[in-house]
Amino acid sequence: MTPKRRIKVALAGNPNSGKTSIFNALTGAHQYVGNWPGVTVEKREGRSSYMGHDVVVVDLPGTYALDAYTIDERVARDFLVHEHPDAVVAVVDASNLERNLYLVAQLLELGARVVVALNMVDVAEGRGIEIDQERMEKVLGVRVVSTVASRGTGIDELKRLIHDIRYDTQPAGFAISYGPDLEAAIGHLVAAIEQHVPVPGVSARWRAIKLLEGDAGQLAELRDDGGEQVRVELERLKSELERKYGYDVETAVVERRYGFLNGLVKECTRRHPGFTGRLDMTEAIDRVVTNRWVGIPIFLLLIWATFQLVFTVGAPLSGVLGEFFHWLGGASRSWLVSSGAPGWLGSLLSDGLIDGVGAVLVFVPNIMILFLIIALLEDSGYMARAAFVMDRFMHLLGLHGKSFIPMIIGFGCNVPAIMATRTLESRKDRILTVLVNPLMSCSARLPVYILFTGAFFTRQRGLVVFSLYLLGIVLAVLVARLFKWLFFREEVAPLIMELPPYHLPTLRSVLAHMWERSWLFVRKAGTVIAVAVVAVWLLASLPWGIPYASAASLIGRIGGALAPVLRPAGFGYWWAAASLLAGVVAKEIVVSTMATIHGVGPQELVGVVRDQFTPASAYAFMVMSLIYIPCIASIAAIRRETNWKWTLLVIGYTLGLGWLVAVLIYQVGSLFT
Amino acid sequence: MIHEILAEMRRGSTTVKELSRKLGIGKSALEGMLRYMVRKGMIRELYPQCRPKGCLGCPYHGRCPDLPIVGYEPAKTRHEA
Q: Are B69 and A498 a contacting pair at CB < 8 A?
């Protein structure tokens, strides 16, 4: 009869391989949490019994390798080397075999008694991966058990194997063949180690490989053990190999280890021929949307379709809101008059607050639809592809593709986009991206576009707004190219991108994103815009006694001073100049200022614009609104992320560029209209 | 294989999946190699975690790290950060 014993089991595995689930399944409620000696890494230990044996399970920190680069790796390795567990359960995520088997290979090289728990086999099967367990057992020389720890599947079999392995001998000489040169070097080192610094219970071959890999822990032990001869031999062998390879020995070892695992996985797995799962679908879609030739046109087509939807679906809803504000303005004015309130109060409430704020709020449906589509594109995984295809395009222009992500965020709002540049490592990349970000058309510009396209381009609204967004992107790329040439001349590094699989966005997540961003817009209308509207109303009413919003008012005088500069762009009106000036506070205020100055609601404002502008000057005005000076919040963000020098440059160049492009468009456009 | 990855990178931007197909390496193994290369300082990861401070008040607070892009670039082009 087998004597009752205490079996010490170590649980090793990659992070997210399901190690904790296996630990819980093996130990149940009998767990203790502490720290590993000398470090703040959590140590979890559990107990159970199997066939009368006391089983102690130690959960090692999740690691990808045993290279002692990180504290977790060092803790795991030190435990395996110095504590000599009776068995090691290597938890392997069956859907990511090669990456997980790398650790298994290192455990086997170390000479540990390993049982492989092929966990999450259900996920692997779901991806069409079939694993030949017997073949894997034969190649690795260890027992393999399939588990789905979250459901408790395979745990009894795992317990049985742990019990059995206790009485097994070492795995029958598992060794990866590292090729003739490396094997010769390993052989020399093994001989030297065994002669000069043998350590009982620790594989000399494993130590030799680790020394060749430049393992700091092994080198330190060698120094402490007085292994000078081994060190000299090691240096000689390494320099010989490096001369031969042209690169470091560690890389050579890692390459060959992965080469072995690549072969092992090919030998032990089969992709189910009839599999048409999510990954294959992702691949099929990616072949089209990230294609070198059609990727960018598809991206542009999606932006165009977005604006078509924004207008087609949003227009009727905006109309209803417009009617509501029209009614509200009239009703409140009548009520104030009938209740004997002073005239100025009626003007403030109706001409100012209701018309001004209402002129912005009517666009909430359009903005919600825009954010809904952006959330759908983001959550489905498409935005990552957009960044990838644009990366190729931007590299052609000598720019960094990474910068395109903050630029895409800029479609929503430039402030978070400018802040998102923090994710770029290089300061120069960050500054460059910040400098051009205000050219990305944020949602606050949308009210201006909707107003003017509603007045002049009703049939091609989507196309016209699409052209403005596109103009923003093109200008951003050109300006970035110019600034790069002027300030940051250096090579641009290519990228390897990780594209996440596509997935169907959840309604909850998409709606939450849409609501979060739309609410900000509404809140802004109730705070910043309302205050600005009151300020504009005051400026339009002062000095007392002049007709409301006349050229003699304060705002009329300020606008009048600026208007001549805007005349070449086709909108040299004092109220247009005043609206643009007020728009520096927030771009939505351009429209609300127009409504407040004219004392009209959103619907009548279309008529005012139609009377005063031409199609060419309307387009030029939209372009000016797109390009000229960023809003105050963006300016503050730019200042925070850069310094005053770059901030002033942004203010200066956007103002100059906006004027120049608007003038060009108006002058050229006037030739055809 | 690691040198082939670097050579492919020098040819221009690509994706992990495309690289895996071109080099005939499993995606999971390729990711492991990329991690090794990061550790060795040959390449570096893109879009690490956002700085914990500084995003307060940002409507995207806490969402920057969720940007669906993780990439790598050669570390030898590292410029002052």
A: yes
Pick from A134, A142, A114, A120: nearest CA to A268: A134
- Rounded CA-CA distance A103/A124 in Å is 19
The SS3 call for residue B30 is helix
- Mutate one of B36, B45, B70, B76 to test the A interface: name it (highest A CB count within 10 A): B36
Q: What is the pLDDT of residues A549-602, one digit of tens each?
A: 888 899 999 999 999 999 999 999 999 999 999 998 888 889 989 998 998 887
pLDDT tens-digit map of A492-529: 667 777 777 787 888 887 888 788 778 877 887 778 88
SS3 A91: strand
CA distance A492 to chain B (A): 8
Q: Are A340 and A482 in contact (CB under 8 A)?
A: no
The helix (run of H) or strand (run of E) holding residue A233 is: helix A228-245
- Res. B61: pLDDT tops 60: no
Domain at A180-254, CATH class: mainly alpha
Alpha-carbon gap, residue A71 to A596, rounded angstroms: 64
Average pLDDT of the segment spanning A637-658: 93
* Residue A229, amino acid: Q
Q: Search chain A and give the residue with CA nearest B5.
A: A496
Which domains are assigned to chain B? 2-77 (1.10.10)
- Give residue limits of the domains in chain A: 6-165, 180-254, 295-672
pLDDT, tens digit (0-9, with 9 covering 90-100), for A214-244 = 888 888 888 888 888 899 999 999 999 999 8
Which residues of chain A does B77 touch, with a Cβ-Cβ cutoff of 8 Å?
Answer: 490-491, 493
Question: What number does CATH give the domain A6-165?
Answer: 3.40.50.300
The closest alpha carbon to A669, from A627, A626, A628, A621, belongs to: A621
Best mutation target, A66, A213, A496, to test chain B (most B CBs within 10 A): A496
| Whether A497 and B69 lie within 8 Å, measured CB to CB | yes
Q: Is the overall model pTM greater than 0.80, yes or no? A: no
Strand, helix or coil for residue A451? helix
